[in-house]
Amino acid sequence: MNITKSVVALALGLGVVAGANATAYTATYDIGTVTAPSTYSQVVAVAVGGFSDQWLFDIPTTLFSGGSVSNLNISIQNIGDLYNINGLSVQLYDNANTLLVNLDSNAGSSANYKVGSGLFTPANDYYFTVSGTGTGSLGGQYVFAVSTLPVPEPESYAMLLAGLGLIGAVARRRAAR
Predict the structure, then answer these.
(1) For residues 129 and 122, what is the distance between their CA atoms, to the nearest angstrom?
(2) What is the pLDDT of residues 7-23, one digit of tens each?
(3) Contact 95, 126 (CB under 8 A)
(4) For the chain, what is the mean pLDDT?
(5) 121 φ, ψ (degrees, to nearest 5)
(6) Nearest Cα to 131, choosing from 93, 74, 96, 79?
(7) What's the half-sphere exposure (Cβ side, CA atoms, 13 Å) at 69?
(8) How would DSSP label each residue in 14-74?
(9) Coil, strand or helix at 107
(10) What is the mean pLDDT of residues 65-84?
(11) Is the pLDDT of residue 90 over 80?
(12) Is 129 helix (H, G, I), strand (E, B) or coil?
């Protein structure tokens, strides 16, 4: 009787483990309000199997941003991959769940490195989706990194042009002497 209970318990336990590996793991990271200039980066460990992480953020003013997601493949000779992600994929969405950019197809992106940049407006909240499959014996790891810069106001451009014009006028006057 005890053997039967043990076999049933083992079968249920293996079923739970198999079910856990069959479903994709999802995590949500809320960066909060992103201002410029700023830099944000984080290393994320994922379990063996599929995952789909969301990175949420808000933009209060127009800014320019560039970022990347990199697979951190750690391998030991004669042992194999400890950490690796296959099928790394990154997309940017707005708060209406509209795909804005698929970083997988950006120039400079590869299977292990996704890169992108662009102008963000304050009218929307945004989120990145980072997905793939942790295939190392310990799962996978990736680095999520973003840097932002302010976008100059039109008045800044006007002052720059006025300054260049003033320098040009002074140079012309000196040349005329």
Answers:
(1) 20
(2) 333 333 333 333 344 45
(3) yes
(4) 83
(5) -105, 155
(6) 93
(7) 26
(8) HHHHHHHHHSPB--EEEEEE--SSEEEEEEEEE-SEEEEEEEEEE-SS-EEEEEEEEE--E
(9) coil
(10) 96
(11) yes
(12) strand
